[in-house]
Amino acid sequence: MSSSRDRVEDTYELQNDQRLEDLHSKLRTLRGVTSDIYDDVERQNSALDNARDAFSSFGSSLVQSSRRASQAFGLGPGGVKQWRTIGYCIGAILAFWILWKMLFWFWPSSPSSP
Predict the structure, then answer these.
(1) What per-residue confidence (pLDDT) applies to 103?
(2) What is the DSSP string of 23-92?
(3) 113 secondary structure, DSSP code
């Protein structure tokens, strides 16, 4: 009887060893998947950080360009005011018109024939 009991115990022991080996194999696979997921997450975080840095740099460049444009067009502090620029243009046009008219007053339109 003892020998049949030993055989049954050996059979159970072999089954337990086989199942333990299956569990160990599944655990290795799970560790590999977990490691792959971690590496993928790290790559995605790195890509997101690079994108954030690029957009931040673009935003600061855009703000700086906007500030320069507003100063050039007189919209911000320190720039030439828009109405002053319009006044200068109108004044220059009037000055050229007046000079044109004065030029015709002093300059004869046709030479006199004797």
Answers:
(1) 86
(2) HHHHHHHHHHHHHHHHHHHHHHHHHHHHHHHHHHHHHHHHHHHHHHHHHHTT-STTSPPHHHHHHHHHHH
(3) P
Where do we find the tokens 């060893």? 17
Average pLDDT over residues 16-45: 95
- Three-class secondary structure of residue 110 per DSSP: coil
User: Residues with Cβ < 8 Å from 71, sequence gap 6 or more?
Assistant: 78, 79
Q: Residue 46 and residue 104: Cα distance in Å, rounded?
A: 75
Distance of CA 107 to the CA centre of its chain: 64
Decide: 74 and 80 in contact? Cβ < 8 Å.
Answer: yes
pTM: 0.47
